[in-house]
Structures are given as C-alpha cells and as structure tokens.
Design goal:
By secondary structure, the chain is an all-alpha fold. The protein has one domain (19-415): Up-down Bundle (Amino acid/polyamine transporter I). It has helices at residues 4-17, 23-28, 34-47, 52-76, 80-87, 90-123, 127-143, 150-174, 179-184, 193-206, 209-223, 227-230, 234-267, 277-288, 290-323, 329-346, 350-376, 379-382, 389-415. The chain contains 19 helices and no strands.
C-alpha cells in the first residue's frame, strides 16, 4: 500500500519527466506514414490476418532500435550520422551517404504520394497538384523547427499523430475484427513469394531507417548537452524519460499499424480492388459509410503532411553528419520534392509505388541498425552507459532477423519459390 509521501514522490517524478517527453513522438511519425497505410492495407486485403505477427515483431524491434538511437545521442552528444562521419574514411563515408540518401528519397516518395492521394480522395485534386500542395504545407511545418521552436514543432507533430490515430482506427468501431483469427495471425508464417514481398514492405514501413538516424539528433536538439549545469544524474534521468517516451510513442504507432491491417482484413478481404489505397477508401466508404471514409482520408492527409516534414528533417541531419554540409531545411525540401512529383507526373500506380518504396526501405534498415548496435556496445564511446548483455543480444538478434527476411525475399523472388 503506497503512503502519501510515496504518492507525492511519484507525482513529482512524473512532473519532472513529462516535460522531457516528445522526441520519440516526432520519430514515431515515420512509423505511421502513407507507406505504412499502403503496406498494411495491402497485407490485410490480400492475406487477412496472416501477417499480424510481422507488425507485432516489427514494432517490438522498432522500440529497441529507437531507444538505442536516442541513447547514443544523449550519451555522446552527437547523432548517428555524425559519429559515422567521424569514423568512416572518405570513400566509404560517401558510399554510406549515397545509400542513406536513396533511403531518404524512397521515404519522401511514399509521404508525398500518400498526401497527394488523400487530397485527391477528399477534394478531387489531381495527384501532381496534390503532391505540390503537400510539399508546400510541409515547408510551413518545417519552419516551426527553428531555433527555440523545437517544442512547438513537437506539439504540431503530436497533434497530427492524434489525427492519424483517429482517422485510421475509427473504422474498427464499425467493423471490429475476428479476434480468434487475429490470435492465429500471431503465428509466424507466409503464403508464397508475394506475401514475403508484402511482409518486407511492412518491415520497411515499420522500422524506418531515417527515423533511426534522426532520433539521435532529436534528443540533442531538444535537451542540449549542458550536463554540468544540469547536475549529477542528468543523463540517467534523460534515459529514463526516453524509455517512457519511446514506449508511449511506438505503442501508439504500433496500434495504428495493426489497426490498419485489422480494418483491411475485417472489411476489405476478398473485395475486388482493395489492395490499393483508392480502392480501400472506396470499399470502406461503401461498406462503412461516407463518414468513416472521410475520416480515413483525413488520417491519410495528416500522415502525409507530418511524415514528409519529419523526413526532410532526417535527410538534412544525414547530410550534415556524413558530408559535413548543412543545407537549410526548406532548400532540401524543394530538392527532394522533385522525384516524388516526377513519379506522380509519369502516372505510376500510387499504391504499388508506395509498397515498393517500403521494400527499398527494408534493405536500408541493416545499414542503419548494424552501426547503431555496434556503436552503443562500444565501451570507449558509451562509458558506463554501454549496452548491457541482454540489450546487446537483442540488438544483434533484431539485426539478424531483418537481414534474414531480406535475403529470403531475394531468394524467393529469384527462384519463384512458394
């Protein structure tokens, strides 16, 4: 039984920790971007509840990876791209930057296309013009991420995250899933080559490479590095707050992702044309009503706006750390918007372009996770905060599973295996 003094101490601790929360919610936006919508709706519409286990495992892995990224930043005062830029020779550093930029481009493609789709569904705006509007509005959000305005940016992103959650989970109230089948979907298995491709896209959409690079920057942008002024135990207090931050943020993102798959499995499975976002929206509207369909589209719009802003922020940090070149966020936003608009102008099928972008992201995950685990287990770098044995084993296990899934995808694709 807790005493009044203990309760007061608990409230005081929470009061000290709550103002420290926020960076993980910004990183979590990467986990509920339009690529997630495409991958998870496709998975549910095609395979029902079969791939629920992929999302559960991916989200658990994401929590570990994002915490390690934040921990690296807090302990060293530098981001993952900065540390890699310091440790890698020139040629490997440039090659590493090239693949990181390719991953960032795939991310931006998914986010802009998703937002353009939302505007098309809501207002009938052509995809190309919708992409331009999403890019323009994202610049306004990025303008909040200036000196002294980090907290404002975080609150704007958190507000959009709440809109995303409501938008994507409302349909489950009208079309609840079959919980017995959900439980069966926790058993790891596939159903042919295409299901592996979809699972890889789900993994790429859930454990996002650019979020891994970014989180180590976010915590330092937010908390700074004046440890002496903060007093003893400052880093431990920040790490404790970060564990809470990551748990809350990624639990919410995981709930949204699983909810998307369950909605598609319960309301869209077997319905013709529901493996695209447009088809899914039409089927949701037909089956659950125009109100639910509109709320879904609003969630997609919020997802595109928030995630493209965070993606541009991540790309800027990657370039600054690996190339030692700082490009203004708004300038970078203009440059990275071009490929996505070009894809829209060519008339590529939007949902399949989103799914393939997530597959590309899944191949970029090991490039971010392997050096992250290696650096956080380096005692010379991390000191007393070096990874414990359990964390080290879990980190390498997650990395091995990611690499194994990617190798399986390549093998099945080349051999046509089932």
């Amino acid at each position: 039984m807790s005493t009044p003094a203990a309760a007061k101490s608990s409230r005081a601790t929470k009061g000290r920790l709550l103002p420290l929360l926020g960076p993980a919610f910004v990183a979590a936006i990467a986990y509920v971007d339009p690529g997630n919508v495409a991958a998870n709706v496709t998975a549910g519409a095609r395979y029902g509840y079969l791939l629920v286990w992929v999302l559960v495992a991916s989200n658990a892995a994401a929590m570990l990876v994002q915490y390690l990224s934040a921990k690296l930043g807090l302990v060293t005062g530098r981001s993952l791209p900065q540390l890699l830029g310091e440790h890698l020779p020139r040629i490997p550093r440039l090659l590493f930057w090239a693949q990181a930029e390719l991953v960032a481009a795939a991310t931006d493609l998914a986010e802009v296309i998703g937002g353009a789709l939302a505007l098309n569904l809501l207002f009938g705006i052509p995809l190309l013009w919708g992409g331009a509007i999403i890019g323009s509005v994202s610049m306004l959000l990025l303008a909040l991420q200036g000196r002294g305005r980090q907290r404002v940016f975080e609150w704007a992103i958190i507000a959009l995250l709440l809109v995303i959650t409501v938008g994507f989970l409302t349909g489950l109230v009208v079309a609840p899933p079959q919980w017995g089948e959900v439980a069966a979907g926790m058993i790891p298995r596939f159903a042919g080559t295409d299901s592996v491709l979809v699972a890889a896209s789900m993994l790429g959409a859930t454990v996002m490479p650019h979020a891994v690079y970014l989180h180590s920057s976010l915590v330092n942008d937010r908390h700074g590095r004046d440890d002496e002024a903060a007093g003893p135990g400052h880093i431990r207090r920040l790490l404790r707050a970060t564990r809470i931050d990551v748990t809350w943020a990624l639990s919410l993102a995981g709930m949204v992702n699983i909810g998307l798959l369950l909605l598609a499995a319960s309301a869209l499975q077997g319905v013709e044309g529901t493996d695209t976002i447009e088809g899914a929206h039409a089927a949701i509207t037909a089956a659950l009503g125009g109100g639910v369909g509109a709320v879904f589209a609003v969630g997609l719009l919020a997802s595109g706006l928030a995630s493209t802003s965070v993606g541009a922020y991540a790309g800027s940090e990657i370039m600054k750390g690996l190339l030692h070149v700082k490009v203004p966020l708004l300038v970078r936003r203009l440059v990275t918007l071009a490929p996505a608009l070009a894809i829209l102008a060519m008339g590529a099928e939007p949902t399949w372009a989103l799914v393939l972008s997530q597959v590309l992201l899944s191949f970029g995950i090991p490039m971010a996770v392997i050096p992250l685990v290696r650096l956080t287990e380096d005692r010379a770098l991390m000191g007393e905060y070096v990874n414990a044995t359990v964390t080290r084993v879990a980190g390498w296990a997650v990395t091995a599973l990611i690499v194994a899934l990617n190798l399986l995808l390549v093998w099945l694709t080349l051999t046509g295996g089932a």
